[in-house]
Write a structure and sequence with these properties.
alpha/beta, single chain, 10 helices, 233 residues
């Protein structure tokens, strides 16, 4: 579904990505792992065309994305849930979800019910100002806003960041359900254990390069990965 080939991105004189290549299979959950600063978020931003690329090629369902504007990428069916949630603190939950459906107006009512079924707390708080929600509720809202686009590919950037363990469990259960519904997912996540348990394919980035790749099961059983990312020998 998605192919990224030899992606090179810089911020000024600093090279963020150095020839990154990977692919995402339809219906799969693909995980990008790595330490802070490895380039994971930059990959997602580049796919969304929020960050310019110097070299490489990005194709989605056979079409070049690297020649499109951000809104055109979204219109192709790619939803990006950014790190830090990026909600609008003065808008209500309902306004956020309605805004998320800007490229899929015809399915607004159906998608709204599906999001409320996935996150019942959002239904309870649909008239509440988003800035007054808890961190977990804001993350649910950010994911729900992405789902309102009826995406073919949902990109999630650090969805568990800063959340309590019980809320992390709830968010990852929602991700599992989203996958069961047939949505393809690309997940950036520092909770390596959870990500490798849930995902299909994984790529580990190091200093802007793909250092290791394989099935999530294989990487879970890789001694080097276990030592570096899972805290075990």
């Amino acid at each position: 579904m998605l192919t990224v080939s030899n992606l090179v991105v810089s911020y000024g004189d600093a090279r963020a990505l150095q020839g990154v290549s990977f692919s995402v299979r339809p219906g799969s959950l693909t995980v990008l792992l790595g330490a802070n600063g490895a380039g994971k978020s930059t990959v997602l931003k580049t796919i969304s065309r929020l960050v310019p690329m110097e070299e490489g090629e990005i194709t989605f369902e056979g079409e070049r994305l690297d020649r499109l504007a951000p809104h055109q990428v979204a219109a192709r069916g790619i939803a990006h849930v950014p790190e830090g949630r990026r909600i609008f603190p003065g808008m209500t939950v309902l306004e956020h979800l309605t805004l998320g459906a800007f490229v899929a107006r015809s399915t607004l009512s159906r998608r709204m019910e599906e999001v409320f079924a996935l996150f019942p707390r959002l239904k309870e708080r649909q008239g509440q100002i988003a800035g007054t929600l808890s961190g977990g509720e804001q993350q649910m809202l950010a994911i729900g806003r992405g789902l309102m686009m009826s995406p073919k590919l949902l990109m999630l950037d650090e969805p568990s960041l800063g959340l309590a363990p019980l809320v992390v469990k709830e968010v990852f259960e929602a991700i599992r359900k989203i996958r069961q519904e047939g949505v393809t997912l690309l997940l950036v996540e520092q909770n390596t254990q959870l990500a490798l348990t849930l995902g299909d394919d994984a790529y580990i980035l190091q200093s802007g390069r793909v250092a290791l790749q394989g099935s999530c099961e294989d990487l879970r059983n890789n001694d080097a990965v276990r030592k570096a990312y899972l805290g075990s020998e």
